[in-house]
Records
---
Amino acid sequence: MRVITTIAQVREAVREARCDGQRVGLVPTMGALHAGHETLIARSVAECDVTVVSLFVNPIQFNQKEDFEKYPRTWEHDLAVCERVGVGLVFAPSNEEMYPRPMMTYVEPGAVAEHLCGRFRPGHFRGVATVVAKLFHAVEADRAYFGEKDAQQLAVIQSMVSDLNMAVEIVPVATVREVDGVAMSSRNERLSTAERRAAPVLYAGLLAALRRLERGEREVRWVREAALEVMEREQLVRLEYLEVVDAVTMQPVEHVDGAVRVALAAWLGRVRLIDNVGFVPHGE
Ligand code: PAF
């Protein structure tokens, strides 16, 4: 496994591999790798000849400087995970390499970033779209792998790739969960014992909404009600949003007549968690 820190070197390595007819997969991460990342990486390793994992904590997607500074940096562990799963190249640029001077150009996502997390984290998706565009230009991969847990991030990236004619195939990967249903996230580590015990109620609420959809309910207010009834039982949870949105545009719907995502963000103490489930009505 090679560890590369410059854009010029990673670009050259990837171009060489592609010239040799090899398919290159990219898994963009901010490090602090957990089992969810491992699944993304393993999928790329299984489908591509060379897998590049980027490790870069992107300052421009954080709303608070403190969150950026506190973001876990687990370098040794991350390299060990990459080595174990079969990664060929780790791209770990410094801040200076990625942002050598103040930025003058950004990728500004449109309506897809307006609702859900976009409402509560102004500028976050602009920061994500911009760094992902920069990574796509540095690592000219055939495919890039993103988790469905960050459904809005995935939709922002899919729309950017389509709108800007980027030549990379986006591969969505299903959310990986702990045995009690909690979606894998580096933030889970920050939950207290009581908060961690309460956390499964988020997925339980989403499943209640999903069951209602599967039984034929199409009015969003009743779908939301099913989830809220479950989540209200847990006092430690402070819901930030619970919305049913179009699966592609991320626009809220009132009536379900196409593919949707039921998505939520909630606070447990000082930790903000997000989760979602997808639903596609069949034969309607
Ligand atoms: O999902 C993440 O870890 C980040 O948002 C990403 C896509 C690596 C961009 O910094």
---
Amino acid sequence: MFVNMKYILDAANRDNYAVMAINCINMEMARAAIEAAEEEHSPIIVQFGVGQMTKMAHPTEMVPMIKAMAERASVPVCLNLDHGPSFEAEVDAIKWGFSNVMIDASSLPYEENVRRSRMVVDMAHAKGISVEAELGHVGQAAEGDGRTADMYTNVEQAVEFVKETGVDALAVAIGTAHGKYPEGFVPKLDFQRLAELKAALKMPLVLHGGSGSGEENIRKAVAGGINKINVCTDAFHAAEKAIKAKWEAEPNTDYLGICMVAEKAVKEFVRDYIRLIGSNNRYTFEAADNGSKE
Ligand code: 13P
């Protein structure tokens, strides 16, 4: 089932679990993610961003392929534009066929973030496409971002932002950062702020920079009201680790063999993540029959 993200996240918000949003830069990653979700009876969000498009994943090839996989799938699958930087990028994404777009104006002044997010919502909703925006700013792990509260999401401002923009999901900054943290570093998340945000907003909340956050933090974030967790670095790492191990053990493994090893590793990683964040067994036939899919 190819669906928008609101369809997936409203159910997650209602039933208190989170859905993985995995950055997929090729067919193997998308297939691994969707197959793992099907086997776990879980919804899944496949996504990629503009930088990844430029390097690896052009939407004219990726979107029809992922849509075809999604339409065949027995579970809800959303295709999300990750960190859309401009109105033009959002228009293009909707034309290409993404079923959710994220507008990221989080490093701009508040009023400009509202203005841009509102414009994207007006345009996307007219086409049945849902929208994620970000308030506060989730920065880069390599630059030490996320360790101080100055970029965290302000609760009162978040309430006003959602009212003014009409976004379907809000990415909040509570202490994570994108990419790889220094060896041994585990981020400290502001769970008090998350509790306040959830109580005030009562809507789907998104955690960016899921990689390297530690299982305990992730479990607590889901319990505290996070409904979508973005994961990129750790998914790539799962594939890289498996490739290295295979080539060390069997140096003559050919290209086909190594692609298969990477795909299997991503699939196992997604399966484990789905179980960690509690989206498994949400889309069984029984669940569909008793209406809890809505
Ligand atoms: P990580 O690479 O830290 O998992 O972040 C991914 C992300 O938030 C994509 O938007």
